[in-house]
Design goal:
The longest helix has 19 residues, at 107-125. With 291 residues, the chain is α/β, with parallel strands linked by helices. It has 11 helices and 12 strands.
Length: 291
């Protein structure tokens, strides 16, 4: 595991991470940490932060990550597929296409396009006093000619997709980027996702070539304890179970084995952080005698 440190200049958060970490919290106490993730990628610096010498930093094993050599990607349940298809500088689809089109599998086809363009210029120049030449075509020029779209049996846009499908699409794109990355030292993926289905959890686990940090208020029993942090009165990293065991032992009036503590932690998380759908017809009677 690596030791990841996040700081905004006023507070520090530190936890161990292999490839995936869930930061669980049922309030907004996680927000300063989440804001740091976004701020690291922002080149703008406010007057307030300048005056108070505040700087957001993310480090892995004491080495600060910069945006030149490290890629930060945010997953969002409000992700706009229609906007991302415009291929602006921050576009996730653009990053995917840049890698995809430069793959060696397409080199022969791109060279053929160059040859055809050269042939076209020769035909246009035949018996003409005005000569033309096509510049060699590169991947950036080719991408400008592309119109990406989402298809699953039928062409769809963002209004046809469920939240799970929107999130899964982003994860699949990131998966390709992480597998074919030769440019960045690290790929840091982060998201605030209030509800995590088992389907999405399986997709997140597939992201093995990057560091994934998910802020959520939802616990699922498929989550491994070492991949969990809990934000309550304290910031607790369950990867460091020995430290938690030591602190807990100081509060407890009886002795427990470490394995017993792990079971108790999972039961606590299940009881307090498991997402449950509400049903007014089933629950309303509980309130009948409270007035």
């Amino acid at each position: 595991m690596n030791l990841l440190n996040i700081t905004n200049g006023l507070r520090d958060w530190e936890f161990q991470i292999n490839t995936l970490k869930y930061i669980i919290c049922n309030s907004n106490d996680y927000y300063p940490m989440y804001l740091c993730m976004k701020q690291v990628c922002d080149k703008e610096k406010s007057e307030y932060r300048n005056e108070n010498n505040l700087k957001a930093k993310i480090s892995i094993d004491s080495k600060e990550l910069d945006i030149k050599h490290n890629l930060f990607i945010e997953i969002s349940d409000t992700y706009s597929l229609n906007e991302d298809k415009k291929l602006t500088n921050k576009s996730l689809i653009l990053k995917y296409l840049e890698l995809k089109i430069q793959h060696q599998d397409f080199m022969e086809t791109i060279n053929t396009i160059d040859i055809l363009l050269h042939t076209l210029s020769e035909e246009m120049n035949d018996e003409s006093i005005l000569k033309v030449i096509f510049n060699s075509i590169g991947y950036k020029q080719l991408i400008k000619m592309l119109t990406p779209y989402y298809e699953n049996e039928f062409q769809k846009d963002e209004f046809d997709l469920s939240i799970d499908e929107i999130i899964s699409f982003q994860i699949q794109i990131i998966h390709y980027i992480s597998l074919n990355n030769t440019k960045y030292d690290n790929i840091i993926v982060y998201a605030r996702l209030d509800y995590l289905s088992e389907y999405i959890i399986k997709k997140l686990i597939s992201l093995t070539n990057c560091k994934v940090i998910i802020f959520t208020n939802s616990y699922n029993q498929t989550m491994q304890l070492e991949n969990l942090c809990l934000v309550e009165n304290d910031f607790i990293d369950f990867a460091n179970i020995d430290l938690f065991y030591k602190v807990f032992s100081q509060h407890s009036f009886q002795y427990y084995r470490v394995e017993e503590i792990k079971v108790m932690i999972k039961s606590y998380l299940k009881e307090n952080y498991t997402y449950r759908k509400k049903d007014i017809y089933q629950d309303l009677e509980h309130f009948s005698n409270q007035n």
